[in-house]
Amino acid sequence: MRLTAAIAALLANSALGQSEPKPGPDGTYEISAPGIRAQFIPYGATMRNLFVKDKNGYEVDVVLGYDDIAYYPKDPGHPVYNSIPGRYVNRIGHATYTLNGTTYHTEQNDGNNTLHGGTNNWSYRFWNVTALSNSSITFSIHDPANLTTGFPGSVDANVTYTLTENTWHIKMQAVAPDTETPLMLTHHTYFNLDAFKNPATDLIWDHTLYLPTAHRYLELDGGALPTGKILTAAPGSVNDFYSSPNASFGRAIHDPAFKNNCGSGCDGYNGYWIFDAPGSNTTTTAGAKRARSAASDSDVVLTLASPWNGIKADLRTDQPGVQVYSCFWMDGTAPLKSTQGTASHRTVKSDGCVAIEAQDYVDGINHPEWGRLNAEITGPGKTYNWESSETGCTVWLDTEDAIDSKCVDCENPGLEAPILSRLVPAVFNGIWASFVTWRADDMIVKA
User: Fold this and answer.
1) Which domain holds residue 24?
2) Where is the signal peptide (predicted)?
3) Per-position DSSP letters for 8-54, written without gaps between them
4) Which tens digit of pLDDT belongs to each residue from 124-151?
5) Has residue 13 been placed in a domain?
6) In this structure, what CATH number is given to the domain that contains residue 145?
7) Rounded distance, CA 267 to CA 260, Å?
């Protein structure tokens, strides 16, 4: 496989060695760090399992997937479980775009549109494992010109998953050395923080979802394609996830506007929310480039939480927005993993999960008025980067008061035993497509 000099240099210092862990008998790679472990397969550079701990200290597998890794390439539904689609994620309107005066036609695999680049996108391909240690794994891929219909020039890309104490980090880099081409990536993560073990429900609506800076979203047509209009969610409306941090994800299911909200015949969510730039207000222009750094210690842009087991995830990202999909099209045939479910909860039903995908504006290559072309077109002399990092101490949560988390100095905690007896260790400060901070807590949910 040919790698450009840029990508080869990125990997040169982390080549596979004899002392590094090898895949298990079924081809699964596992990496771990204190408080967290994850498993991966080369198909789609896919995260197969992600284990964190709940408020009682029990390990929970919070992402969807299959026990049988041979089923991933066979699954006719191909939901893109926790993998890297590309080279251009989400939809391309009417399967066409124009670049440098040339009109390109891509595969129609989502009605009249292109989804994730077509049916030979990167989530359908086997990536190479190019670096591996006990706590990190790197996958790489070479995508020749037009191997996926309608994308000029070759692309070399890699994704590195790294675990440190209480941290999950993803770093993506790519180059297009031959010619300019559309390039937009994401980690297509499917969550059910309950791991389908909540005896009261196996649906996602009991979770809470909070987007504190996402007042605006892209209007959709019947095919879930952005129309070009950017709307502002009124407080309390179906698409409002900013006005209440503890509102349930399913609070609007009885609102008439919930029906067909994610396209014709689709009830729920499959849309793109725009984060306000730091220091801006709700009148920020749509083309304003998001200046927030994914490596900053603040600026949480999304919180997903399970009141049932206390697992809570805070997302920070350098991307300008996020796609949220509430799994309406799941039909109850996909099996759960053996790490998930109950005797009565054994498959993924419609509305049983949520996919969260930090990324750039959907179909931005066909909407120059949004000002996203520079971010979504890569070519010679440019490197596409999706990089972030976080170093955190152990977080302890006061479950007696059920208030905000308390971060303790890792070197000098200064906590006395009577206080420690009231506290539960937090579970996961992670990074996904940027980074996610996980913790276990007791929460109060507003319907």
Assistant:
1) 5-440
2) 1-17
3) HHHHGGG---TTS----TTS-EEEEETTEEEEEETBTTEEEEEEEE-
4) 999 999 999 999 999 999 999 988 889 9
5) yes
6) 2.70.98.10
7) 5
